[in-house]
Amino acid sequence: MCGKIYVFLPNILIMGATIVKMDKGGRIHIPTSLKDDLGPRFIITRLGDKLILTSIPEDPVQDLEEIGKSIPDKTIKELRKEILEEAYNDIR
Fold this sequence. Notes:
Elements: E1 5-8, H1 32-38, E2 42-47, E3 50-55, H2 60-70, H3 76-91
Antiparallel strand pairs: 1-3, 2-3
């Protein structure tokens, strides 16, 4: 499955978030429980003063094939609308 996204925000604790510190070498220790669930590889994206860690699947093509099997017979516009609504509901 596609990777889960964890957002680390300064001074805000998100339910289920883990507080981590950067060492002098600039490394961030990812807790074993997260590595076990998400794998060892991540993309780090900077969004202003935030870091977004996105796990990279072991076989992205296979993951996309699995996702494709589950997509209902809808237009891209309908899918986009549903995704945006779900994302909006998740942040409320």
